[in-house]
Please model this.
Amino acid sequence: MPTPRSVPTITVREMESMKSTYQSQISSLTATLSGRAAEVESLKKAVADAERRVGEAQEQVREETSAREHAEREKSDWERRGVEVEDVLRSIREEVFKSDKEREELLRKLEESDRRAEEAEARVAENETRALEAENKIVDQSIMTTADSGDKGPRYTAEEVQRQIDEKVATLCRELHVVYKKKHETKVAALKKSYESKAEKKHVELTHKVEELSKQIEDLQARKNDALAGSLPEGFDPHATANREADLRRLEEQNSELEQQKTRLASLAGEIEAARAERTQLLQELENERREKGELVAAVDEMLSLQATEAATPRQQAVVEDFRRSVSGANATPRARPENSSGPSEFRSSGIGKPSGLRGPGFGFGGGTAGESRIGRGAGASGVNGSGAPGVPKSRMMSNIERMGMSGRGQE
Model:
């Protein structure tokens, strides 16, 4: 039969301290988990921000590449148009060269016509000389005939006749020279005027054509500038290609930073999983402790039933009531103890020490035979817990309860 000294007790203070300890542990784990979750969220935001920056950098690189391709296409187009303009200018130069060549040909023809005119003048002079010679012959014949006919007129000597002939020939030559010179000057002036008008007309046409081509080039240049200004992004400098290497290096650094953030996020996720597993284990241990308390309450109820069936002393009843109040105080609001403190004081003065606390899980009272008390089991069950699993040690309180039951059976 259990004695009051053999009944272990657990105070409300110890139960509350254990409860506060577990609650503080749970609160600290919850706070740690919340901090880790906040850190994970911040890392997720940082990774998202890094991905956004990487996407923006890639988009900027794509825009720069497209602008570069567009500029290259514009450059090739302008090169093609420049080749066309060069072809047009080359054709204009060829036309100018051809006109110069025609002008030289016309000048050569003019010189040839002058030479022919001089040759014609020489032939005319020769013909005049022949005519003078023929006239001299006629004069000689007339003089001879007049001399033969008698002294009817004045006689001329040969020198006078020759002088008169020379004067007439010189006069005729001067008149012919004046006439041919005037004719030649008129012809040269007409040809010069004609060639000058043709050259002036050709020059005006070529000047207009060059002006039109210059305007077309300016228009195309303006269109090119407008196209480049419309296609390139804002703030893009086509000549500032030296910054591309720096942008690429910065992009690589951002990618490496993103990889580091991902690695750190994975490690933090592992730590969070470990913390969650630890929290789950602690909750399981707390649940086992609660189940152990319930079994302890069942053991107390069995002790009360033994108290009701057996004749117990008032001191034993007071000890049992005090034990029941101390156990039931863990699940209900603690109440003031009765002023009869002789039972607890005697219990505290006994050789049984206070339990230091509840042990781990794997503790129970089940598995006994029907009709056998869970308190008064034999010593053979001391190495087996309530669930039948061997090797798991029992708590100090349960050992005391079993000893109390064994002592009660020995007294019987």
